[in-house]
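1st attempt posting a full record on here, be nice pls
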Amino acid sequence: MERANEWLNSPPLTPAALRGKVILVSFWTYTCINWMRVQPYLRAWAEKYKGQGLVVIGVHTPEFRFEKNMENVRREVKALGVDYPVAVDSERAIWSGFNNNYWPAFYFVDAQGNVRDQHFGEGSYEPGGVARSTANAS
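the predicted structure (as tokens):
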């Protein structure tokens, strides 16, 4: 996350600040219809599981040139109700670090910094799925 171009909704989240936390990293871009369908769940999970130590971090990685424009990103973060921290990854540095290839993509990172679970695309919204992944990552 150190290689983010900019942070929205949060000061930069450093490895020291995230140490010992369970993290759900969500790769997205604001024109992805699949991510738009997932967004209400992300917001709900961020709120519901924060007491269990879950930190949701959105990584906005643009697909198209106009999605790199920070004014556009700020406007869409607000319009789409993204209220959790967002790392702007316009150069795909974080994307590459995860060897990611998809929007949306979700990675559960344990308190020691290891990826413990991942999911690509829509679906898997069943009750308890996030709780299980959070517990497995603790």
